[in-house]
UniProtKB/TrEMBL annotation, chain A:
Organism: Spirosoma endophyticum
Protein name (record): RNA polymerase sigma factor
One Pfam family hit: Sigma70_r4_2
Domain (RNA polymerase sigma-70 region) ranges: 22-88
PANTHER family, per database record: RNA POLYMERASE ECF-TYPE SIGMA FACTO (PTHR43133), RNA POLYMERASE SIGMA-70 FACTOR ECF SUBFAMILY (PTHR43133:SF46)
From TrEMBL, chain B:
Protein name, UniProt field: Outer membrane protein beta-barrel domain-containing protein
Recorded superkingdom: Bacteria
Region listing for Disordered, in residue ranges: 114-145
């Protein structure tokens, strides 16, 4: 909390050293957050860049009413959604059969699924499913909130999420690590 | 999967621990270029104030942006069309006074004072440009300086039922059991856990790297934090309402925050692992940075422009013309010359370009050039014995320039064994014997060229990534000859063999581009386009080496 305060105050003074420290502390997590929403790595970098510029420009609006990290995440999510809104992918309906059966190359030596593997799974989802899955399953938004956020019907949000789960489940089941009959539902 | 179970999960949104926990701890160092770009943009915003020419808010909406772009294009085309029409009305050939076969040309004695043959065209220059009635002011306002004390006091005044405040109040032992309930039952433990994490986080690792001025501020902050915690427990519903209305960002870009402000803030770290990774060693990027940066910088754009300017074909008649003219030229005692003057021209162009990297770009397109010029050429008058038969006056029948063009046509026809045409009369020596070219009598006639143009040019950005950018341009311009209208009755096309169907020119200049939005920009360029080679065939009696200069106005759409 104390160091967050120092960081925020330094950013308010537009102290470049402190701005850099804020970036170094949170950029790693926020970059993964960007990549969960934006599949293209270049676009994800652009979103991260835009988000940090907004953060520095609007740091005055942060009043310590929530953890700094939560505030930063909200800005990154909103920036990513703003980017996605240009295409409105959540209005497209994608057949499960249309999904490419190619699975990401997972490291089978790992006892558990690491985040790179799961990130690849999420990125393989159609953009609409991916966005709703991120918002609902990971960020914890409710379907009414998602419908308001993406300007879609609540039913669309539910169906996109349901489809995302189904696709992820199919991918996990076809993974070699689950070939012995081990259920993949535990991950979903 | 059981459908009933799935629907229950959908309704209540139980946080998915597996996915959430995995990504809560995930971190991946972005490439260094991301920070470089951020720093550059921060430097820009601090150093430059740009006038928002196209407004903001509703004006920046996509449909209106399109409409404005289309309107600007139409306006540019209309202005160009109007200028061309104005020019054609004021052609020097409108002032003809001499009868005869070349009735479309004005004939005047060569005298020190100039007649008004070309003055009519100057009327086209009286174009008045309307300046915008309203000056547009910059919307960038300096952010108010907020001292740490002000920040914390104002924060405390606006405290709501946010869980963080509850956690602060607990830790300060000032809680009198009046903590506001939270909306979501799962939020309270989460927030309390997070607050604990934040308090025991290794803050010294950051503070020790900070300058002493920042460290000194922490003492003041500690005292203020106590005050804030006391005020937290006195939070009322009225304060919550006030906080809800006052926490919205004030600037335009901050509008996107509002979509999430209505929901409670939660950090989903309920699971057993409760640590925050503050630092992480740099990881290798997934692919080489060089290739990524090259791919990233390639921005494309399409443009439409109009370039009013001056066009001079630099006409000359070859010395071999003297042979064809026999003694006619020599008999005048003076060297007979054909001179051309630049006149108004307009070029329309549609093109596209790609930004190869931060500084270099390549662009091409297709255009149309209508170039007008004025030719002064010695007139052809009847010989003395012929004059005697015609009222003792000089009778103008033709001129050196037109005859040279027509002779070129004749040579072409003879070379191809074409049937005899009316033009053969011109090559008849008996006909020539009746006339002389007199340098004392000059004819002025218009010379209107039309070309299709294909430019290929590279640009070097002097101010990359700026809203107002400047670039140096250079390249090759391929001129595809369409036709040339001499006076009003002689039309030479590419099939006649006088002009090269394709000739090359260079193009060079500088361009300013103001990027008002992410997609649209307006550009202003000054261009100089001299020819690299003659625009006429080698066997032609006429030589041209066109040069055009002008200011190009354009609109660009960036993809």
């Amino acid at each position: 909390m104390q160091d967050e305060y120092v960081l925020v105050e330094g950013c308010r003074r537009q102290d470049r050293i402190v701005q850099r420290q804020l970036y170094e502390r949170f950029a790693g997590k926020l970059f993964v957050l960007c990549k969960r929403y934006i599949k293209d790595p270049d676009e994800a970098e652009d979103v991260l860049q835009d988000a940090f510029v907004k953060i520095y420009r609007h740091i005055d609006s942060f009043r310590f009413e929530c953890p700094l990290e939560a505030w930063l995440k909200r800005i990154v999510i909103n920036t990513a959604l703003k980017q996605l809104r240009k295409e409105k992918p959540w209005e497209q309906t994608v057949d499960v059969q249309d999904m490419a059966p190619v699975l990401p190359q997972a490291d089978e030596s790992l006892p558990a699924l690491n985040y790179q593997y799961l990130l690849q799974l999420i990125q393989e989802l159609p953009p609409g499913c991916r966005t709703v899955f991120n918002l609902y399953a990971i960020e914890g938004y409710s379907h009414p909130e998602i419908s308001e956020l993406l300007d879609i019907a609540e039913g669309t949000s539910k169906s996109q999420y349901s489809r995302a789960r189904m696709l992820l489940q199919q991918k996990l089941q076809s993974d070699k690590r689950f070939a012995d009959g081990r259920p993949a539902e535990g991950y979903l | 999967m059981n459908t009933g179970t799935e629907m229950n999960e959908l309704e209540k949104n139980t946080p998915d621990d597996f996915w959430r926990k995995t990504f809560d701890e995930a971190a991946e160092t972005p490439p260094p270029r991301v920070w470089d770009a951020i720093e550059r943009r921060l430097d820009e915003s601090e150093g430059t104030k740009i006038l928002p020419l196209w407004g903001s808010g509703l004006v920046m909406s996509r449909p209106l942006g399109w409409a404005m772009g289309v309107a600007a294009t139409v306006a540019l085309l209309l202005v160009g069309w109007w200028l061309v029409n104005t020019e054609s009305v004021n052609q020097p050939t409108a002032q003809l006074h001499q009868p005869g076969p070349a009735a479309n040309v004005a004939v005047r004695p060569l005298a020190p004072e100039k007649t008004a043959t070309a003055s009519g065209s100057e009327g086209a220059g009286n174009v008045r440009s309307n300046q915008p009635a309203e000056a547009v002011a910059s919307v960038d306002k300096p952010a108010p300086q907020i001292t740490p004390a002000q920040t914390l006091v104002s924060s405390a005044k606006k405290l709501s039922n946010k869980p963080l405040n509850e956690s602060i109040a607990r830790n300060e032992d000032t809680v009198n059991k009046t903590i506001q309930p939270v909306n979501n039952a799962g939020d309270l433990p989460t927030q309390l856990m997070v607050s604990r994490n934040l308090r025991r986080s290794p803050s010294s690792s950051v503070i020790t790297q900070l300058p002493p001025s920042i460290l000194s501020a922490t003492h003041e902050r500690a005292a203020l934090e106590n005050r804030m915690a006391h005020m937290a427990v006195q939070t009322s519903a009225a304060f919550r309402d006030q906080a809800a209305s006052s926490t919205a960002p004030t600037a335009t870009d901050a509008a996107i925050f509002e979509q999430l402000t209505g929901r409670p803030l939660r950090l989903r770290t309920v699971g057993p692992i409760q640590r925050i990774v503050w630092f992480r060693p740099a990881e290798l990027p997934m692919e080489p940075e060089v290739s990524k940066s090259q791919r990233k910088a390639r921005e494309m754009w399409a443009s439409a422009s109009v370039m009013p300017g001056a066009f001079n074909p630099m006409v000359a008649v070859k010395s071999t013309q003297a042979a064809y003219a026999n003694t006619l030229v020599a008999s005048t005692g003076n060297q007979s010359t054909v001179t051309s003057r630049a006149n108004f021209s307009v070029a329309y162009q549609a093109g596209a370009g790609v930004q190869l990297n931060e500084h270099w770009s390549v662009e091409s397109g297709i255009g149309y050039l209508a170039g007008h010029s004025t030719i002064e050429t010695p007139a052809q008058v009847a010989s003395s014995n012929y004059i005697g038969a015609v009222a003792n006056q000089n009778v103008v029948t033709s001129n050196l320039y037109v005859d040279a063009i027509q002779h070129s046509l004749v040579n072409k026809a003879a070379a191809s064994s074409a049937p005899q045409t009316a033009l053969d009369l011109v090559s008849n020596n008996s006909f020539y014997s009746q006339y002389r070219y007199s340098s004392q009598t000059q004819e002025v006639l218009t010379n209107n060229y039309q070309y299709m143009q294909v430019p290929v040019q590279v640009g070097y950005q002097l101010r990359p990534r700026k809203r107002l950018s400047m670039a140096l341009l250079g390249g090759i311009l391929t001129n595809i000859f369409v036709k040339n209208t001499v006076g009003n009755d002689v039309v030479v096309t590419a099939k006649d063999g006088v002009y090269r169907p394709v000739s090359l020119a260079t193009t060079m200049g500088a361009r300013f581009r103001y990027r008002s939005t992410g997609k649209w920009s307006a550009s202003l360029a000054g261009l100089y386009q001299p020819s690299l080679e003659f625009g006429t065939q080698t066997e032609s009696q006429v030589q041209t080496r066109p040069t055009s200069t002008g200011m190009s106005f354009g609109v660009d759409y960036h993809f």
